[in-house]
């Protein structure tokens, strides 16, 4: 199957020039080197149909020639001609090479069990590119174990992007925890992040909202199938579609049919924002959102139009989380921050996770940057407009991962139960229920925030293993999956 380098789930990554075990030239069976050389030669002369002729009959049945040709035809201008190749290593029928292009390098995996015929192929640009930032990078990685080396190799590729700054990672593995930190908390500072630094975790915070909803269900304070209007003051006849009400569960699995924002910004403002850099755009919107509270949301909810039968269509929706936070406050008769921190501290021992940003805590945050390496402001914002916002550390999130793997808390276990699937999106209560390319089930959520942070939280129940990765940039959420899969591949997990 043709698998391009745009999707974070599709590749198994082992990259270049870090450990002798993988990146030494090595000896390669001539037949498979010849297959790779044939692909490169035909690629360089734009003979894409000739490349396709090297597919096995089985692969050709599922990989149409037109799609194959168009993919490699589009790739050639990006890479230029391939000037040299390097055999990396092999694992069974998986043969790994690096193609060095005139403009761009590619990591290539060829699946082949018989000479001169490929059964599948995977390409990725998650390799050190020409002109990349050379390093070295500060780190607390002890480089003593295979895991240490795998993490080193993956993170160095990530940090080779000139717009990356720092990375903090935690791994929970069958009762043991490991932490790693790289780079800087601020460009030019030389200060290494720690596992106690605080990051805004972006949309991973949605899983905390879901946990509070599940806790309300466990305690009998609400039912997941309740019409949300049961907990609203006054009449909201608009919060239904053709007689079908929005239910609490619909808010938590992105099937509510609600608008994705509670506000409709003036068109003139939106046009002007397009001309501004990210940080200025963020500040320009502050007057509209900083004082947006529960009463504001209640008022605007009278104008919401539901666009489909709730529970039937998936549409990722942060506004629905703001509504759910509002309802949780009305169910429990207490502020969401108080509700959340009490649960995290008393049930999970998480004392450094909060939705609030106080002046004394600002010093614990690394500086966040946008995808172009520009610093972004860290400012408090309402849960009802940015919904939700939570700040945490690697050490606290490892406790969260451990609790999710253990499933001793009934509410946490409930959030892992499938509530919706359309074939592409499988959802529990805010958690995404996924599978790796090899079919291994996982539970995960990504997070990105305008303050300049990206987050990946993922765990594997069958293996009792999980990862939390924070970076203080917003280059690409998919590249956090690249880091993860590279680590897994080097350790022989994939």
Description:
The chain has 494 residues and is α+β, with helices and mostly antiparallel strands. Helices cover 34% and strands 17% of the residues. It is built from 17 helices and 16 strands. The protein has helices at residues 20-23, 30-44, 48-52, 57-62, 65-79, 146-159, 206-218, 248-252, 267-273, 278-289, 294-301, 318-332, 336-348, 383-386, 394-406, 410-415, 478-490; strands spanning 82-91, 94-101, 105-111, 120-124, 166-173, 176-183, 199-200, 240-241, 244-245, 391-392, 420-421, 426-427, 432-435, 441-449, 453-460, 465-471. The strands form 5 sheets. The chain has a 6-stranded antiparallel β-sheet, with helices on both faces. It has a 4-stranded antiparallel β-sheet with strand order 1-2-3-4, covered by helices on one side. The protein has a two-stranded antiparallel sheet with strand order 7-10. A hairpin with a 2-residue loop joins strand 5 (166-173) and strand 6. Helix 6 packs antiparallel against helix 17. The protein is globular and about 75 Å long. 42% of the residues are buried. Mean pLDDT is 89; it is low at 1-26.
